[in-house]
Description:
Strand content of chain B: 25-35%
Distance between the termini of chain B: 24 Å
Number of strands of chain A: 17
Helix content of chain A: 10-25%
CATH topology of chain B: Ribosomal Protein S5, domain 2
Largest sheet of chain A: 5 strands, mixed, barrel
Number of helices of chain B: 4
Helix content of chain B: 25-40%
Number of strands of chain B: 10
Radius of gyration of chain B: 17 Å
Mean pLDDT of chain B: 93
Order of helices and strands of chain B: EEEEHEHEEHEEEH
CATH class of the largest domain in chain A: Alpha Beta
CATH architecture of the largest domain in chain A: 2-Layer Sandwich
Strand order of the largest sheet of chain A: 9-10-11-13-12
Number of domains of chain B: 1
CATH class of chain B: Alpha Beta
Largest sheet of chain B: 5 strands, mixed
Oligomer: heterodimer
Number of domains of chain A: 3
CATH superfamily of the largest domain in chain A: K Homology domain, type 1
Amino acid sequence: MEGIQVQDRAIITPGEVIATGMDYIPSMGTYRDKERIIANKLGMVHIEGRAIKVIPLSGRYMPKVGDMIIGQVIDISMSGWRIELNCAYSAMISLKDATSDFIERGADLTQYYNLGDYMIAEIVNVTSQKLVDLSTRGPGMRKLQGGRIITVNPNKVPRVIGKQGSMVGLIKDATGCRITVGQNGIIHIQGTPKQEMLAAETIHKVEQESHFSGLTDKIKAYLEQRVKEMQLDPTPLIIDEPPRERPMQQRRGPPRFSRGRR
Amino acid sequence: MEAKAGVIKNADGSAMFKMGDTIAYAAVYGPRDLYPKFMQNPKKGILRCNYNMMPFSGSGERVRPGQNRRAKEISMVTEKALLPVLELEDFPNAVVDVYVELPQTDAGSRCAGICAAAIALADAGLVMKDMIAAVSVGNLDGNIVVDLDKDEEDFEGPVADIPVAIIPSTGQITLLQMDGEITPEKLVKALELAQETCMRINEVQRKALKDKYAGE
């Protein structure tokens, strides 16, 4: 038999033949074995012209250059911080990529990021051995203060965000929360406790029902109903973030004649 | 025969596989950091399997849980049966942990464990060429039989118990052990029977995965 063996958007398991013949090209999540194109991941078949790919439905996050992620500080070293990304590998962020302040040698790094702090950062480099480098230089990247952190399946992140951020925009508008979605499936929500609760609830609903078509409309109706039920005030909480405080420099070591920045 | 995927919430992938009175649960964690560091392989990720019979799982006497000679051996053969289909090149220095727990056994536990582990690995979203199906075949008093239970294994007479694990798409064998005696002709016949049975087991495994994800 020639051609496609399964329906588009069907669930496929590893080892199943998707197509036979040389008319199709194996893409992500598939491989070619002579005449056949076989899935090597559990997922949903997606046929794009001649290319066949399998969109994964499960699995851990894999760090990719350019991704915006939310991570937690798990260790502090001499020259930076180690960040947990909810994946197989942890990342490093160096002093220079974490802050624009001048930091004295031997300064206490916990005044910038302490153990357990969360940050929004961008992945700037991933080596073949999966050493990951982060940076917080860029718009929107910062230390997270207040709010709450929830985790979703990283494969569902595109659905949580929606087309051009439609889904997350909807939830933001309806609840008044400030929401940041990391590509690694960690989401930061900030608002009043009630607003945060509804936002978290809705995001989990999106995650669970991500396969339905017309999900945005459904979520819209759900949010309207819940806002009424909870008598929620969706005016955004004014988050007055103090301007990036610069900790007092405490110098150690022998006295120096010239002070100030280099 | 019954299979279900996604039975353990905290795991990255999990499955239950039941064959006769033998029930196996498998949980997959990872890929994740591997410690101690000297076990890390910088070229590719490693697979670590752990087989455990629960204290009340045997027929009658309490089974001492945890590591023993037999559990160690089965953990090793499980690992070697699953490894040929797994592609772990993308996960240097990492580990994929597979925990197989058996709350109830009636022989054929390593095969049930492998079947459950294969579903759990696919559920965890790992890259694998194919799934693995396993079954025990054997020779019971001159008859070729499939999936021996404890009474059949303990039969007083000529018995052979041959656990086989197979890659369904190619028919390649990744596990072959034997206990007992069998003639070469019968062994070939038994293996043919194993191939046939594994294809049917594989259908059940795939259905379990599809059932989980079709509803999602």
